[in-house]
Amino acid sequence: MQDSQASGTSSRHPIVVPSRSDSLLRTMTEPVGGPLGKRTAPGITNPGFFTVERVLILMAAVSTFIAVMAKSHCRTMGWTTPDQQSTVCWSVFPNAFVEDHLATHFPFFSDGSPFSQPVIAGWIAGITAWMTRASGDGALRQLAFFDLNAILIAALWIATVVMVARTAGRRPWDAAIVAASPVLVLMAYVSWDFWAVALVSLALYLFARRRTLWAGAVLGVASLAAPYPMLILLILLLLGIRAGRATRMLEMIAAAAIALLLFLAPIMATNPPAIPEYLKALIAAESSESSIYGGWNILAAQVGMPVMGIGMVNALFAILLAALLLAVAYLALYTPRRPRVGQLIFVAVAGFVVINKTTEPWHALWLVPLVALAMPRWRPVLLWQAAVLTHFIALMLFRSKTLGNISNQHAIDAPYFVMAAVLSGAATCVLIGLTIRDIYVTGHDVVRRGPIADPQGGAFLDAPGDPAVALLDEAEESFRVPSAEAAPQDASVPKDSQDG
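Below the sequence we write its predicted structure tokens.
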């Protein structure tokens, strides 16, 4: 079969097939028939019913069902401590329903509401609690509350997969990293963080389609679900400065601020102290066990050393955050070639996850779609997810020890938990390092090998080239590093379809 360029019948580019170009996927697909056939041209030939998006949706649907099964013990026996920790089926949803009195209080709107989750989580929790009022009382309503929130997140999961596939350009199969993510299978239903994940994925899709103001508005709403969308706005501003699109990025930030205020206005009108009290509680919050500060305090308490107080933790976090922002600004403005949007956002958000004082293992949810756009290599991504899952399971077993009188068979001591947390943080830092390498040595970046250097570039794609790019292009072509995962070339396959 001739490709579109040879036949002149189509201007479409073939879709990159990871099972051809990724050595790990080539091996993993052997039991089901091996990589996609050499005589196919995805993106050009008609696949029939099983389009890429439909296959990805099917994968995501299966994953959402497996994720529910992972919580089946608690759904059957109830969410009691330490049983919910030792069986690793703990979730914020049913616990918040009881602890935050969601049966009688609408978070942030009701006086005296003790809700400690972000504002969007408060909206969702209040609405879903109201929707379950006819399901009974006690454990029955708690179960209905969990199930309803899980259904909503399952829908968000599938929608996120579709958005990532469309945002990835000619690499839609990279969204399989999201569709079949082990991290999502175990932790998607743990918290309301997936609302931020879905909103950010929508914003990046809109930005890639040059709907800049709408992307800003969505990021403004997303910043009420998790803090990291604010970091994304800063990244886009820095890249906009380098690309000569600063004014457009400032307009996007203004749209984000307006959307944010629109969501806060009803709360401020009905319960003015709610937001200031939430911010004060956030600043005064203790560091989490999974953070670098909490890990230090756990070990320090074990050996009799002084622990860090809240003031010291906040000061150290502020210093590290400033250092992260300076490093990201340098990458955005001074690298030989402007980083791709997905790359720099992943570096910044992953760095924030590592240094955040309230970081939790399930904050890795933030990174799964971002890593699919930034560095879609299955081997390092799966190894990173294995480290994150180890961290989450270790946290549950550690809490079993600290929250309940439970045997060592279902719990672990502090040193083992800290080791798992360090392993997870180190794995995240490795991905950050690999992404920075791809920024500097573009021959390693599998995404740049397509006809569009930055599928998420949006408004930056028609920007004037960087001064150094014209001088480097010829050198980069001669220096281009062949991928270690590249498949053997075959005359019957369009070359674009074999790029990894």
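Confidence is low (pLDDT under 50) at residues 1-11, 466-500.
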